[in-house]
Write a sequence for this structure.
């Protein structure tokens, strides 16, 4: 910008004037964030390292821990692709179209973010649990959903459902439909148009949604706690392992698992910032 | 209906057969993973006897959990409303070393699993922890009390106000402030009359979203609270306790209360946003 120097000099005086005390406010913000975010985050690393390498190794050779890692990964590997297909379909179905009830449909897609994860888990128990609507049917056919992997996956799907759609939808709207129309005119099939035109144009937004969806899927606690039964070595995911280790005063175990998930959070944040910078995306947490 | 008009059911079927694949997959997925579970809860709730529902919903333990959940979540939302406004202001208007790191750290509550947050907060704010040990001489106990619930709720609802206010503040024209300033308004007048009004819809939206998130929160609270009825037991934990006792009716009623409150908050958020759009484009 040619007149950015001018803009800055104009902005400098009044913008710092109304609230005043620039450094006082910065000190408040740093202090607040330190108490709420930074010190707690730092504490995870300090506590996990307290037992040194042997402490970490002890937890990493714990059967229950390894199983929890495995189960968390399996549930995530099933959930994220399913939600990706849904998110892409939902965004494509809604984007650049006008039809009655469109904004209602967008609100419905976003609904899982407003429902308590525990209530989401409760819904699944009422549906598939022993006393649930499909309970007798499932029991007769020998299929177990609650206290088993399918329940954990369904609970995770429920709470992470909106992530992809809400990131991809604005990108699709911004891109418009000209390119897709051109591709169709040139004889591309809808499938070709999707792979060659639509997908490349929304790849960064999709990746952004994927990262957030993945982080939440691996870390989901409330919904999974209700449906999993929390059986150590069987239906215990990593967040559930943390809770049990904490309750049983296995501080080293709890913090080693927490360290693993905290690393995931750090990677998520770094990727997020990179995407925001390189692709000009800005978070829109609604 | 005359015989020339198509059968409505057949009409619906025609619509489905004409619908595109993304459209079909979207509705199938929503039906299976969203509508069906919600229907299960609603159907269970309406099969209960209304007197029974009332008795469970207004049971003293249940009432105390609403108090702890909603009042504490509102307190957390309000605290973050003020703090979030200041954080957004500092991040948008000032330059200082470490600003980008702080900006990225705001999203930590979205990225860090709630179990990890609850674990580390309960350690830090325990009487022997880094922060809790400092507060204890003042008679403030945080972990395993209602204050702990507040701290966990502040943690998880922190990003909402900041992220809602930041873009609005960025788009705010500095000329308006300069005009107020040059016409003799003092700092406080400029802030209250010129800067704050256009930010209010964003602040309120952020507070409402943070409140909604805090009300439903389970993971971080269950680890830092003592989960004792009438003290620091929140509604989502009560639902899980009821389920563990195989009291499905109890869990359903409290779950429905939470669901209805969530939907009401969602409605309020939409109203605030619609009003904000009308007033400030």
């Amino acid at each position: 910008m040619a007149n950015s120097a001018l803009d800055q000099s104009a902005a400098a005086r009044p913008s710092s004037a109304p609230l005043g005390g620039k450094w006082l406010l910065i000190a408040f913000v740093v202090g607040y964030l330190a108490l709420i975010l930074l010190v707690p985050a730092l504490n995870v690393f300090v506590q996990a390292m307290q037992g040194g390498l042997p402490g970490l190794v002890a937890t990493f050779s714990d059967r229950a821990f390894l199983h929890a890692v495995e189960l968390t990964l399996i549930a995530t590997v099933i959930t994220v692709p399913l939600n990706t297909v849904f998110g892409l379909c939902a965004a494509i179905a809604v984007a650049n179209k006008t039809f009655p009830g469109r904004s209602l449909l967008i609100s419905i897609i976003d609904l899982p973010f407003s429902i308590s994860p525990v209530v989401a888990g409760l819904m699944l128990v009422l549906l598939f649990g022993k006393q649930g609507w499909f309970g007798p049917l499932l029991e007769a056919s020998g299929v177990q959903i609650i206290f088993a992997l399918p329940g954990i996956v369904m609970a995770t799907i429920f709470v992470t459902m909106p992530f992809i759609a809400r990131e991809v939808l604005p990108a699709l709207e911004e891109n418009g439909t000209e390119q897709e129309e051109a591709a169709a005119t040139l004889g591309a099939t809808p499938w070709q148009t999707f792979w060659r035109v639509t997908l490349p144009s929304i790849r960064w937004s999709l990746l952004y949604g994927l990262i957030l969806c993945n982080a939440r899927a691996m870390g989901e606690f409330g919904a999974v706690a209700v449906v999993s039964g929390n059986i150590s070595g069987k239906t215990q995911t990593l967040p559930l392992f943390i809770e049990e280790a904490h309750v049983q005063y296995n501080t080293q175990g709890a913090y080693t698992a927490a360290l693993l998930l905290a690393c995931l959070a750090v990677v998520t944040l770094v990727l997020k910032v990179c995407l925001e910078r390189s692709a000009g995306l800005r978070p829109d947490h609604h | 209906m005359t015989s020339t008009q198509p059968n409505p059911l057949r009409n619906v079927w025609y619509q489905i057969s004409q619908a595109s694949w993304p459209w079909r997959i979207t509705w199938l997925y929503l039906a299976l993973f969203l509508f069906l579970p919600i229907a299960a809860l609603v159907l269970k709730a309406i099969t209960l006897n209304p007197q029974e529902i009332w008795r469970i919903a207004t049971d003293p333990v249940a009432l105390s959990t609403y108090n702890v959940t909603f009042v504490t979540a509102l307190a957390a939302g309000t605290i973050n409303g003020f703090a979030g406004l200041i954080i957004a202001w500092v991040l948008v208007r000032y330059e200082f070393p470490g600003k980008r790191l702080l900006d990225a750290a705001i999203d930590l509550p979205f990225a860090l699993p709630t179990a990890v947050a609850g674990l580390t907060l309960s350690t830090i704010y325990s009487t022997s922890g880094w922060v809790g040990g400092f507060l204890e001489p003042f008679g403030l106990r945080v972990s395993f009390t209602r204050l702990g619930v507040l701290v966990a709720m502040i943690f998880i609802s922190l990003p909402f106000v900041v992220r809602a206010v930041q873009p609005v503040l960025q788009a705010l024209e500095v000329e308006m402030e300069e005009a107020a300033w040059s016409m003799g308004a003092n700092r406080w007048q400029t802030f209250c009359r010129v800067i704050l009004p256009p930010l209010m819809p964003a602040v309120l939206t952020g507070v409402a979203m943070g409140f909604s998130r805090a009300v439903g929160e389970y993971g971080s609270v269950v680890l830092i609270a003592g989960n004792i009825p009438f003290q620091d037991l929140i509604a989502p934990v009560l639902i899980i306790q009821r389920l563990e006792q195989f009291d499905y009716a109890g869990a359903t009623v409290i779950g429905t209360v939470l669901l209805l409150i969530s939907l009401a908050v969602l409605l309020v958020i939409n109203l605030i946003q619609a009003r904000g759009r009308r007033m400030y484009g």
